[in-house]
Every structure is written in C-alpha cells, then in structure tokens.
Design a protein that fits this description.
The chain is α/β, with parallel strands linked by helices. It folds into 2 domains: 135 residues, Aspartate Aminotransferase, domain 1 (Alpha-Beta Complex), CATH 3.90.1150.10; 239 residues, Type I PLP-dependent aspartate aminotransferase-like (Major domain) (Aspartate Aminotransferase, domain 2, 3-Layer(aba) Sandwich). The chain is built from 11 helices and 12 strands. The two termini are 28 Å apart. β5, α6 and β6 form a beta-alpha-beta unit. α1 runs antiparallel to α7.
Length: 394
C-alpha cells in the first residue's frame, strides 16, 4: 500500500497528541484579542477570568468532579509532585509512600529523590506487577500501614496501557485513613472517569495527552482534603498554585475535555478496533513477537509489542524512513539503551524487552495507516534480524 508522499503515520499519541482544530480555534482569541490578566479588577481582565472558570467547569464535567476541586498546573509532572509533597507536608508524622514499580518517571523519580535526599527519612514501598503488568491487591493491602501518608498509583500505564483497579485501591486506602493519588495522564479522555463515585483524593492529568497544547495540566483535589501548595506566590487558583495562569492553554484544555467527552465512544470502538487490527496483524505476520500487557484490561488505543533479537532504537530508525512514528518504551525514557523499567518489572525476557515498540493511536488514525504499518513492519523486522548475531531464523 502506498501513502501520500511525506505523509506522517502518527502512532505515538501516548507521548503527545496533535492539538485538535476545535481546540486551537478556542484558544487563539486568548493569544490575541483577550490578553488581560485574569486577576485584574477591570472588565477587560475579568472576562478572561470568566473564561478560566468556564474551562474549570469543562474539566470538572469530564472527571465527574466539582469545578472548585480543579486546580490548573503546568503539566502532569507538576501535578504529581504537588499531590505527593502536599500529603507529606500535611501529615509530617507519616513518612511512608506506597507506589508501584511501573510508575511514570514523574512519580518514580520523585520517590527516588525523596528516599535519597532526605537521608531515608521517607520509606517507599514499590508494588510488584505480574507478567501481564497487573497488580496483586493482597500485596497492596499488606503494604498499607499507620505510617503511610499517601498511595500514588497510575490509572493506566503509559507503556503497556494496562489499567489498574483504582476504585478498589482508593477504597482500601480510605478505609485506613490514607490519602490516595492517581496519575491519570494516560487515562483521561480514553476511559470514563467519575470521581463522584470514587474515593480518590488527588488526580493528575496533562493537556497534551488529550489534544490540548503542551504546558497545561490539572490537579484534582477532593473537597475537604488537607492540601499544602507546591508553588507559592500570588492568590491564583484560590491560593493553591501561585503564578499568572496560562489562559490560552487553560481555555484550550477546557475545550479538549468537551471534545474528549464527545469522542469517548469513538475511542472505545473504532480506535480500539484499529488497535486490535494492528496488533493481531503484527503478531500473525512477524514470528517471535509478543504482546506486553494484559490482553483486555488496558487502554483502547495502546499496544506494546516486543520483536525478539532486534533493538527498539533500530526499529524506530527504520520506521522513520517511512514516516511512521511510535516509541520504544516511553518517550520520557527513550534515548537510553537500558530496557524499559516497566518491562523489566513485568519480567519480559531481555531478548524481547530491548525490541519493544509502543503503538498508541488516536481518533485521527485511519485504516489506511494501519494497513501501511502492517505492510512495512514485517520487512523492517526481517531486515534487522538478518543483521542480528542472535537471530537464528527459527
């Protein structure tokens, strides 16, 4: 199959997404015509402040939250850090954190630094995962103690798409009087979320994962939760996050949340069908390939496949010749020759972990693009295996 010359086949949406046309249209006036400071007393600034409040309402509607529970941040990483550090400061007598071995670097690195920089003042329990990337709730229950300040567990894994049982885990933490945070950066907009029905205290999301621009995120803080700000300064965001708001991007995120609600069904039907077609075609056409992650308990757009005896970086370089975009591991860890920490935690064999490719689709992907990838990938893997000293053609 031939694609239009120079056309980009973008299957790296867990790394970032294109800004939706409707979202760009919504934000442009706030980069030109409506440039007032939302904190100003005059009407010109006040109308900008009203736009922020409307975006807050839109985000809350997608999450099943109240507008007053939404705090705008710069990104998911800031939101993650704010939630965890807030809990540790709100309960200084508690020094234990429960998380997993497969968290995004935003949480993983923070916990490592807390452990190291505070002279092991804070203790971190990192839950194991099974071979399919799922958690053991019995191990989780045993990890919770009177000294636990916060649990931080991602809603869905960024590399494999595996979804964790957040509702049950949050309930178990609440029963022990422990704060619960979930990094839902990959889940928001792809799977339904209703925080009114969950006992989650903090939730993080990032705009550029759901067709809004980079540089804007959200931290949900449940009403009544003890909270200590991370960025101190002015009175913005009701004192929860100092600094003049990124108005245009906040407006864009609000529109993106409306769009996500509109497209949720498409994400879980058509996009999922494209993902399944791509996945099944690759596994059938390429010998010694394997799916990483649970077959069904995963995001509808994500497929992580290992091709044994080849390097992921080499695969990506060959894919790039055809303008096919994907990731080897996660975008935040690419460039390293070390296998993904997620795949290592899952016990994926060394020969397969090095050759893992994450395909992550969006509402903008097409059947033609899937067919093009299915045509090119067997050629790419076969040519690389011919050069591999470990490939025996079996």
């Amino acid at each position: 199959m031939s694609m239009q010359k120079n056309a980009v086949v973008y299957m790296d949406n867990n790394a970032t997404t294109r800004v939706a046309p409707e979202v760009l249209e919504a934000m442009l006036p706030y980069l030109s015509e409506y440039y007032g400071n939302p904190s100003s007393m005059h009407t010109f600034g006040g109308q900008v402040g009203m736009a922020i409040q409307e975006a807050r309402r839109q985000v809350a509607a997608l999450l099943g939250a109240e507008p007053g529970e939404i705090t705008f941040t710069s990104c998911g990483t800031e939101s993650d850090s704010t939630a965890i550090l807030s809990a540790l400061q709100a309960f200084p007598e508690k020094r234990h954190i429960v998380t997993t071995r497969v968290e995004h670097p935003a949480v993983k690195s923070l916990c490592e630094n807390l452990d190291r920089l505070t002279g092991h003042k804070h203790r971190v329990t990192r839950l194991k995962v099974a071979g399919d990337g799922t958690l053991d709730l019995a191990e989780y229950a045993a990890a919770l103690t009177e000294d636990t300040a916060i649990v931080s567990v991602m809603w869905a894994n960024n590399e494999t798409g595996v979804i964790f049982p957040i509702a049950e885990m949050a309930r178990m933490a609440r029963e022990r009087g422990i704060l619960f945070h979930t990094d839902a950066v990959q889940a928001v907009g792809k799977v339904p979320i209703n925080l009114k029905e969950l006992e989650v205290d903090f939730l993080s999301l990032s705009g550029h994962k759901l067709h809004a621009p980079k540089g804007v995120g959200v931290l949900y803080v449940r009403r009544g939760t003890l909270f200590v700000p991370f960025l101190l300064g002015g009175h913005q965001e009701k004192g929860r996050r100092g600094g003049t708001e990124n108005v245009a991007s906040i407006v864009a995120l609000g529109r993106a949340c409306d769009l996500a609600a509109e497209k949720m069904k498409d994400e879980n039907t058509r996009v999922k069908a494209l993902r399944d077609r791509l996945e099944e075609g690759l596994l059938a056409a390429i010998p010694q390939s394997m799916l990483n992650g649970h077959k069904t308990e995963r995001l509808p757009n994500t497929s992580n496949i290992s091709f044994e005896y080849v390097e992921g970086e080499a695969i990506l370089l060959h894919m790039n010749r055809y303008n096919i975009c994907a990731s080897s591991g996660s975008a935040c860890t690419s460039g390293s020759l070390e296998p993904s920490h997620v795949l290592r935690a899952m016990g994926v064999p060394f020969t397969a972990a090095h050759g893992s490719i994450r395909y992550s689709l969006s509402i903008y992907n097409t059947e033609e693009e899937v067919d093009f990838v299915l045509e090119k990938m067997p050629e790419i893997i076969a040519s690389l295996r011919q050069m591999s000293p470990f490939w025996k053609g079996n």
